[in-house]
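PROTOCOL LOG
Step 1. Enter all chains and additional molecules of the complex.
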Amino acid sequence: MKVESVKQRINNQAVQQLYQQYKPNFTARVQIPERAVDINLKNEIKAFMPPSIKGMKKFSDNMGEVQNIIINALGTGLVAPIFIKWNPLSKTDEDTRTYSAWRQPVSAVIAVLTQVGATIPFNRMVDRLANNGYYDEKYNKTLFQDKSYIEKITKRLYPFASKEQIANMVQAKMKEQQTNLINMIKRDNIVMSRDNGETFKMSEDGYKNLLNEVLDEHLESANKEVTKCLETTIPKKTKRAEYYRTNKDEALKIFNDLNKLVDETPNPKGIKKHVKDLKKQYKNSDPELQAIFDDILDRRGNNPEDLRIAVKAKLTGILRDIDFYTTKNNFSTKEELAKFVKNYENENRLAPLEDEIKVLNEMKKMVKSHAPMTSIENYIENEVKKNPDHRLSKFKFSKEIAEHLQEQIKNNIKAHKQLTGLRVSLLILPLSCWVLNWTYPRFMDALFPNLSNKKHPKEIKELVNKANHQTEVKS
Amino acid sequence: MSIISPVGNRIKSINRWFSRLPYVQNEVCNRFQDPKKNSAWIAGLGVTSIVLKDGLGCYLYVNQSLNNKDIPEDKRKFVAALDLANGGIMILFQVLMTLTISKKVFQEKMFNKLFGKKFNRQASKSMQAIMETKDNLQGKVKGNQEFHKAFEDYKDSAIAALGTVTTLLAATTVGKRILTPFIATPLADKTKEWMCRNDKPAKVHKDTRNTYDTQIPAGEKCQKPNEQHQLNIVK
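Step 2. Run joint prediction.
Step 3. Record the structure below.
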């Protein structure tokens, strides 16, 4: 009896915990940060991407078994029939080939209906289970639940709340989860929930890997930039500056005229044509001039006005460089210029990068020696204080860890979904085959009776009648 | 409810058991962490799924076609033979196409040709200049590492998507649906012969005799009945 009452109490507590977890605050006023202060370039950049790239990104984010089935079905339904029916190598009669060809689109439609139909509910199940903590650490989304999941739970808890209230509560909950996760990271204590209300701490190894991965990502990017600067930027800048130094008048004339044209033209698209003409006109000039023209031609915008802005920015840069390498600084020899460019880049580009790499390596050492997050963040803060233009001045370690954890779990769930989809569609295949075998002859009978045998008895009967009639006449 | 719940729980626990498999956690999940680097592997996983289904489907279709009484008997073996020949060759071609198209060198060339100009230095600089003209973004884009990270993220996604789409299209459309029928259809004739090697001479059912003729319209044919046909009917 006592055991039962304790069990009951525990169950009630779990329900209460869950309730508290999702309990939204009706009076909550969502503090939307001012855009000018807190800009998320990851979101902002989307509006400026070409539509084809946005489409690729969308496809990449949603890649999975459903997409595989659809691509496969497109080939089956649209391409296969053509190559079966009009196959010059086949000796089988055309009727039979047409009959067989029609099976492909029927099969494609059935495959999509049965396999996608079965895979989607499983994908939703995986999402739901990941959000409510049914899975282990690698797939656990309880610390940053999906918007749709929070919305569903909130609607269930507050069936009479208005749409606006629900939206406010959802946003507040998401913000709260985000803040909680960052606070957990600051305390080196990421705690996830299970679907039964229990909680568990993220494994030590998983947490350390997370920190190292964030740092490694930054290190890799900084090292790449150093290599790029040494191997590409410095030689390229030297070459270009040398062209400006030796062809100052020609360069000034061409690019001042072009700049004027960009300002005045009502048709920014025509600028590229003009640059192409210039390229032809100066084809015997310095090859570096041709490279500058190519750079201008590579400038792009999603609309004519954006293109004007992009080309204008390039021309402004070119005119600034001409001024910088010929008027502000004077060089009598190529070697003198090359030395200047190298020193300039070392000071302005390589030194900050090397400083960043030094700080990141130091942080890695701190992670290895199990230093708490607060001391790592204090270390960055002190380094940035020494130099406000430090490349890590905007680096928020705990925030980046939170983002990385979300990304990691999102990708793990994607992998799990793909494998789940594979198993489900394999299991559903016998049903797809059965449906196809049941549907296909009936489909052919209904739409192409000449190719199947259903209408033949009628035709035969007519012929028999006709033949009998002829026989009767003959006899 | 009482039946659905235990079944649902069983499905959930099987699903969780799969998610805990060391291969899934250590290999598959790790591959999905960097879709750009592992685009060939991920595309290969998609093709593997299709190939497995093709293998199982081939077995099922051949069996069912052979026993499907609704398909005319004289066409049944051809349909089954086409399934069998198709199954084997399409699996082979899909694997070959995947191995070819997903090659890094091939993918890089294709990406540079299709999207190279959208992600080069000038494209990045153009976007920075355009974004800087917006009031809320002024002074916040140029030289910001966040911008480069976001820009690279789009590039990585495009590389991953292109890798998957081209591999899947090459395998499932070119390999499976264009090349395979060219070989499988004539091979089906041979396979049918092989399948019928021990059969008594097959008699074409009079009801399913092919009537399609590209030379003489059906209407004209009816007006000039074939003598042989008449004889068969009279008999």
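Step 4. Note key features.
The beta strands of chain A are 191-193, 199-201.
Residues 397-447 of chain A form the longest helix (51 residues).
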